[in-house]
Write a structure and sequence with these properties.
Elements: H1 2-13, H2 18-63, H3 69-83, E1 90-98, E2 117-129, E3 142-151
Helix pairs in contact: 2-3
Length: 153
């Protein structure tokens, strides 16, 4: 019994292997935090890229009103080129508001001919980000939906 107590006292004072044990406990946590931080920064960067492309497209729409199909196609091609999105994930739509109503419509048909018509261009982009941890069965894909409406008149 005394030898057992003496052995326990000696083990408590012995520091050999302490660093290895602490490292074994801390390294997996730090690795997960690093990977998570990298993935989150990639998600935020993509969101910022899409928001920036929407702002750029809005400025272009203000400079040259995309009032024809050809101009809207050109604007769409600019967005596709700057974001790397497929054309199917970018939509450019003209919207109209009659008088003081708050709803936007896709046609310029006001019930009251004296209503002032406000014209908008709506830029819509969607994208999907697949985080690397999804390969291990953790989490889900992140879907981006960016909408920008610019009043033209």
């Amino acid at each position: 019994m005394m030898s057992m107590l003496r052995l326990l006292r000696e083990l408590r004072r012995d520091t050999w292997g302490t660093m290895a044990v602490e490292t074994a406990l801390v390294v997996p946590v730090l690795a997960l935090l690093s990977i998570g931080g990298f993935e989150v920064s990639a998600m935020v960067a993509r969101q910022n890229e899409l928001q920036g492309a929407a702002a750029e497209a809005g400025q272009i729409a203000l400079a040259a009103s995309p009032d024809t199909d050809a101009k809207r196609a050109t604007l769409k091609n600019i967005i596709v080129t700057s974001t790397g999105l497929p054309a199917s994930k970018v939509t450019i739509t003209m919207k109209f508001r009659c008088g003081a109503t708050t709803t936007l419509q896709t046609t310029n048909n006001c019930a009251n001919a004296s209503d002032k018509v406000s014209t908008y261009v709506e830029i819509y982009m969607t994208d999907t980000f697949v985080p690397s941890w999804k390969k291990f069965g953790v989490g889900t894909n992140m879907t981006y939906r960016v909408t920008r409406r610019v009043m033209l008149s």
